[in-house]
């Protein structure tokens, strides 16, 4: 302590990926492919979760309330294995795209707040945005391949009063939920997020080369504009990508709910990356004080997620309107209780666990504790998205083998791209005006 | 009780921080440091132990939570049961907002009262001010002295470490 005037010159450091790390990433992908293949074969042979649930699905769907009449009365669309694959591609992509965008959101937030402490970890956040373009491609491919399996509102004739598929409620939403406008919005969201990610990154890299405060001021302007646009687009993307699978249902909390999930996952990923880099001998300026702040963020926003989750739950529970309550009906007891355990598991792993573990100051300053909680939070919010998407799309025919396989493939690919982008620039933004403040950060 | 202090007056927080380290390394016990604003890391430099206030806060919070749950369960479940919105009498989700608020309420008030008590900040307590300039722009390091203290050495030590002046002050505490 008391190193306030003690000057250590901050020099650039570059991440070098060892062949072993790369091999680990590739083996994650290989493991994912194997798990996925096993899952697909099992599902195609009607063994395991899919088969058992398939029988129960019809009964449960009828019991699930008004949704049942429109949604699950007749099994439609692709065979179960393909449907599960498409849904799980969509699910994982929503999760990874969201976490990716949080990287840029975090950087922008720090700029606008004039925050100094986070400068030494900002390159991690910059690199996180790497999934935005691949994410757009995956979204488009999955949408074209499987929109009828994912989105009830894309079915033929559903907006046509003369058709027997006609659904007046969905037809009332046709101004917003129609394929061309939906695709335009998707491209616009990801386009905006990608553009601002690249812009902030470019300014930051130019600052590394040339120095001076003009880059900092320019970043603040860019960041402020991004935050305004992100506030709108993050909410709208949540309606589009997640809420519209339950097309009869609606919740005004939903945009924030999804954002809270992304945000806390993004912080968990940042923390986890910082710890791994630190343990691999990089980021020598990151110390317990920076980790403490990240831990506080993770603690606080786990509670924020719970707050939003509960606000949505309590109003629907109290009012008990059938059109709203069906959402929790399906998740708490619907489909023969297929999702009941997950409903409570989410609350435990996303709220109780981080809350109790990170409450103490010491826990937020210890790498091992933060590591455990970060991993738990990431798994927890992955399963949070699972619970948002699967009951609406798969009804009672959900499973876990295919889903985990796809998740591992996504994870491995993301890590390869992420670390590649991380290695492209110095891990220390050497000419950032607040670098010195960050190096001497005390909590 | 009367105590005598040597006061090292500093103009700069960085100088002060180094002085604290060096003075403590020289084996001199620092009574207290008065600064116009909070300085990051000064607690560690002075070797002050971490406050146990958070532990107390946790228990205040638990008290608040227990009180809130007891109150609602007793009132709405037993004392005056009413059917509200067709929900059971003891409807836990509906109790959560009130439980949360009372947990926060008990924690804040408990912490503030405890903090005042342990800092001896209560009405009619006279707070000794050793040098009024510490509320403006000077940093004051107070070192308790007695008959055996070598004042010349102490003064030299403080001056060597950047003190702009070294004063002596007597303070009567009651």
UniProtKB/TrEMBL annotation, chain A:
Q: Where are the transmembrane segments?
A: 25-47, 94-117, 129-146, 179-196, 222-242, 254-277, 297-318, 338-358, 370-388, 400-418
Look up the domain of life of the source: Bacteria
Keywords per UniProt: Membrane, Transmembrane, Transmembrane helix
PANTHER family noted in UniProt:
PTHR43044, QUINOL:CYTOCHROME C OXIDOREDUCTASE QUINONE-BINDING SUBUNIT 2
Protein name per the record: Quinol:cytochrome C oxidoreductase
From TrEMBL, chain B:
Entry annotated with the keyword Transcription: no
Q: Keywords assigned by UniProt?
A: Membrane, Transmembrane, Transmembrane helix
So which domain of life are we looking at? Bacteria
User: What is any Pfam family matched here?
Assistant: ActD
**Coiled-coil blocks:** none
Keyword Transmembrane helix present in the record's keywords: the answer is: yes
Stretches that traverse the bilayer: 55-74, 94-118
Q: Which PANTHER family match?
A: LIPOPROTEIN-RELATED, QUINOL:CYTOCHROME C OXIDOREDUCTASE MEMBRANE PROTEIN
Question: What is the official name of this protein in its record?
Answer: DUF3341 domain-containing protein
